[in-house]
Amino acid sequence: QNSYAWPNQSEANLRSPICCIMGHVDTGKTKLLDCIRGTNVQEGEAGGITQQIGATYFPAENIRERTKELKADAKLKVPGLLVIDTPGHESFTNLRSRGSGLCDIAILVVDIMHGLKPQTIESLNLLKMRNTKFIVALNKVDRLYGWKACRNAPIVKTMKQQSKDVQHEFNRRLTDIITQFKEQGLNTELYYKNKEMGETFSIVPTSAISGEGIPDLLLLLVQWTQKTMVDKLMYRNEVQCTVLEVKVVEGHGTTIDVVLVNGVLHEGDQIVGTYLHHKEIKAAQGIKITAQGLEHAIAGTSLYVVGSHDDLEDIKESAMEDVQSLLSRIDKSGEGVCVQASTLGSLEALLEFLKSPAVSIPVSVISIGPVHKKDVMKASVMLEKKREFATILAFDVKVTPEARELADKAGVKIFIADIIYHLFDQFKAYIDNLKEEKKKEAAQEAVFPCLLKIMPNRIYNKKDPIILGVEILKGIAKVGTPICIPRREFIDIGQIASIENNDKPVDYAKEGQEVAIKIVGSNSQEQQKMFGRHFDIEDELVSHISRKSIDVLRDNYRGDLSLEEWKFVKKLKILFKIQ
Ligand code: GDP
Fold it and tell me: Is 149 in the pocket of ligand 1 (CB under 6 A)?
């Protein structure tokens, strides 16, 4: 059967736009697809739609029929619309074509009862990254209390049928959601009020259950793409084709599902033989291909047809470009986490996310497919360089039990998630935890700065241990701090072993406080220092700092010291002649 319509009246010879559906889970993406497809099949006559591999094709004729109630001068210049069947960003990211997004336009589904959700925002970021325009389907309007169903009717007509209460409730929720989009830096507006298409994204209220707003959605998709994307949609003969999925089909071996964006594929084209037994097929379509050697195909990459004048090696080089372009994102220093994803597209999306300034996680290794032992081995190289990078971020891939076992043994962390943000959250929690641990370890080496004045008549014990009443003139006196007398030669008198403030033990005391401190010699070999012999009442006591102790302090306690206290560290640095 001939599954594509190629109307001769399409004056500009445009190809069909390709559309993808995205949004948070349960917003109705699948139902919306069913609705767009199903209602039509039932209405029979205006059919012609074909559910293809991974995509549904709507000929222009069909769209014209379904939108006639809108009385738009539905002059369709495109031959039809190809809607990708698998909703969600997984398929969107996978759909690449020559390094850019394959989808010409997207439908972003938002549940009117719930507004923007984490995956809505993730979808938005992906759309921004690919610079893909989209239309918001504000779905489930039928759930507004008191909604009167007008099956498959245009939205303006439907709205007029609703009670004041429903209209009011609708407007309230719409305004809320527009505000939420604004918070994401996006202007949105009801599509029939939108005077600045492009600058402002259009919202089409829909119900995937009763079909209200679906005609509006279809018409808007087609009108907008053919109006603003003429260049992109100009039909070209050169084959442009993207692999959607690689799978094994009984009786056919490994097959690939592809979207043919441009050009014509012929049976017998090198590597090509079509499953549905079309002799040839013209863009844009979703098709299944059987051929030899397909088990090595990677979802998300481009398919190339080798013409009779082409050099096979050149083509192979082009085919590798998709992968090469990702390799260039790897951190030059060789230090970074390992990143693994199911497809080239999702890998790219993850890399893009990790690179963004707010996240900024360096990557040292990338791979596609399940996490195996060899991947853990690669990650373990980092254990010696930077422990926190001995980590695999696994996006939507499985981890083999052997790999898991090895990772546990070696101390390699594997984080798995099917939402990019969750990977980040897990990794961040892990890093924060490591930092906290490091801080605890560092506590031994950090020396807080202090300047102490010995108070007369408060000499409780002259030696073993020294116990004195002191006033903190500057900085923080902390238990564990090494104390010295800054004469021409520094005299180390020991470490603060304890502090008492009004007879209560405390960990530290701050500028202006008067406390009693106990100082014990830090080195038992050395002669213990004594008040009245090695130092006296007019001597000031200071923390004995070093280059190392300053570094540790700065790396772990930067925020714990005030500006004034850091200035004092600087003064001590000069005193101790630290470079
Ligand atoms: P997906 O996860 O985004 O693909 O969401 P589904 O299409 O699976 O829909 C999730 C649930 O919401 C299902 O129970 C649907 O029947 C329901 N649903 C989807 N669209 C609508 C709608 O427009 N109105 C109402 N009332 N329910 C809907």
Answer: no
3-state secondary structure of 450: strand
Q: Map tokens 């007509």 to a residue.
A: 157
Q: Reading across the β-sheet that carries 302-303, which strands appear in turn? A: 285-290, 253-262, 240-249, 302-303
Q: Can you spell out the DSSP letters for 296-326? A: G--TTSEE----TT--HHHHHHHHHHHHHHH
Contact 481, 495 (CB under 8 A): yes
Mutate to test the pocket of ligand 1, among 20, 22, 24, 26 (most ligand atoms within 8 A of CB): 26
- Bridge partners, 371 (sequence order): 399
54 lines ligand 1 (CB under 6 A): no
pLDDT in tens, 389-400: 899 999 888 899
Our answer on whether the CB atom of 96 is closer than 6 Å to any ligand 1 atom is: no
* CB of 372 closer than 8 Å to CB of 403: yes
Contact 241, 29 (CB under 8 A): no
Q: Report CA 514 to chain centroid distance, whole Å.
A: 52
What pLDDT, in 10s, does the model give residues 475-515?
999 999 999 998 888 889 999 999 999 999 999 999 999 99
Residue 421 buriedness (CB in 10 A; 0-12 / 13-18 / 19+):
middle
State the greatest distance between any 2 C-alpha atoms of the chain, in Å, as a whole number: 109
Identify the sign of the CA torsion 281, 283, 286, 287.
positive
What's the pLDDT tens digit per position in 81-122? Answer: 888 876 655 556 555 544 456 788 999 999 999 999 988 888
Q: What Cα–Cα distance (Å) separates residue 303 from each residue in 212, 265, 406?
A: 39, 11, 36
Q: Which of 457, 523, 448 is nearest to 493 (CA)?
A: 523
pTM of the complete model:
0.57
Report the distance separating Cα 161 and Cα 200, nearest Å. Answer: 27
**Do the interacting molecules here have an ipTM over 0.85?**
yes
Q: Give which of 326, 323, 317, 281 is closest to 301, Cα–Cα.
A: 323
Going from the C-alpha of 446 to that of each of 105, 238, 302, the distances in angstroms are 56, 66, 55
* DSSP letter string, 76-88: --SSEEEEESS-S
